[in-house]
Predict the structure.
Amino acid sequence: MISKELLDILVCPDDKTKVELVGEEWLVCHHCGRRYPIRDDIPIMLIEEGDKWRIPPEKP
Ligand SMILES: [Zn+2]
């Protein structure tokens, strides 16, 4: 589990939007829909990694 202090400073590397912790192993950017995995308590904040798990946000 990552700390709240760390979570507070984590942003999407592409658009700098604050990410949200979902479950215990995903950080989701609601702006671009990328999802960043957390492996061994280390968030993988890489655009190419986020792209793999991206769920594009629905268009309004
Ligand atoms: Zn993003």
Summary: Residues 12, 14-15, 17, 29, 31-32, 34 surround zinc ion (CB under 6 Å). The chain is about 20% helix and 20% strand.
